[in-house]
Design goal:
Blueprint: E1 2-8, E2 11-18, E3 21-24, H1 25-32, H2 40-63, E4 70-71, E5 77-78, E6 88-92, H3 96-101, E7 111-115, E8 120-121, E9 136-137, E10 140-146, H4 155-158, E11 162-169, E12 172-173, H5 174-177, H6 184-187, E13 193-201, E14 211-216, E15 219-225, H7 233-241, E16 251-253, E17 277-282, E18 286-291
Parallel strand pairs: 6-16, 8-13
Antiparallel strand pairs: 1-2, 1-5, 1-13, 2-3, 3-4, 6-7, 9-12, 10-11, 10-16, 11-13, 14-15, 14-17, 17-18
Helix pairs in contact: 1-2
Length: 293
């Protein structure tokens, strides 16, 4: 199931992508007088039971011809695919070629850092370049959405704790990132973590074999597969859960492949600027597009 969140009537609505368009789950539930999860967080909490309820509403809407409940995707305003995670955990140098282009050693264990909720952004929403930041870079990443509390889980069971997957862009201000020994400043400006457009439920995705691509103004800059990760998704979830408790709704950026601007020679580095269009494409999940301003 492809889920999304969108803005409607000063509210954040849960939607489902279908062949007829985007189904407003709340409106459909009112029509059929059914109780269903009305936000992604509620759906994650209800897990399989919640998905079954929403599947029933989707099926009835399609079968009974309620076309008025569907809106074409072009007419909606997306919200961040995940609204309010307790934690946004990011993984650095998780592809061998990215480590090499960054002139850093291949890590022996996952390198973790964090972003904050102020960085969350939505598909098609602009990303403001902060005043004073000059070296803006892109990072295409597969993002994991945690579905249930995970503490000290094994790699074998780790993926059962994932609710779904989405595309993400770990936008970075490289000049701010390397101002000190900590990269926080360059990673956490407002809007620097677009996620979406959809959260695809885990039953529809094999996270170990997904093509991942980044295009800037239509030009392919990154192209790889998640099979090239140094630490795969199960290893990451297990590792993180042995150091902190993962909560439902937490998200994990799993690292970016090679092709980022920081990996170019200084003579070739042309940093992103206002008006540049960033598109992150991940197989089976969708395309996430944002414009810098």
């Amino acid at each position: 199931m492809k889920l999304l969140q969108f803005k409607k009537k000063n509210d954040i609505r849960l939607g489902v992508k279908t062949d007829l368009g985007i189904l407003d789950v709340k409106e459909a539930a009112q029509v059929f007088k059914q109780s269903v999860p009305e936000t992604l967080q509620e759906l994650i909490a209800q897990s399989e039971e919640g998905i079954a309820k929403i599947s029933n509403v989707v099926e009835r809407s399609l079968k009974e011809g309620h076309q008025d409940l569907f809106t074409q995707e072009e007419a909606i305003t997306f919200a961040p695919a995940v609204a309010n995670p307790e934690k946004i955990i990011c993984v650095g140098l998780n592809y061998v070629n990215h480590a090499k282009e960054s002139k850093m050693e291949v890590p022996a264990s996952p390198i973790l850092f964090s972003k904050f909720n102020n960085t969350l952004n939505a598909h098609k929403e602009p990303v403001a370049i902060p005043a004073g930041a000059e070296k803006i870079d892109y990072e295409a990443e597969l993002v994991l959405v945690v579905g249930k509390t995970a503490k000290n889980v094994s790699e074998e069971e780790a993926l059962s704790y994932i609710f779904g997957y989405c595309a993400g862009n770990d936008i970075s201000a490289r000049d701010w990132q390397f101002k000190s020994g900590q990269g926080l400043l360059g990673k956490s400006p407002d809007g620097f973590a677009p996620v979406g457009p959809y959260v695809v439920t885990s039953d529809e995705v094999n996270p170990n074999h997904l093509s991942i691509e980044c295009r800037i103004n239509g030009e392919v800059r990154q192209k790889a597969s998640t099979k090239d990760m140094i630490f795969n998704c199960a290893a990451l979830v297990s590792y993180i859960s042995h150091h902190m408790t993962l909560k439902p709704g937490d998200i994990i950026f799993t690292g970016t492949p090679d092709g980022v601007i920081i990996g170019y020679s200084e003579e070739e580095q042309v940093w992103l600027k206002s008006g540049d269009v960033m598109t992150i494409s991940i197989e089976s999940i969708g395309e996430l597009t944002n414009v810098l301003q």
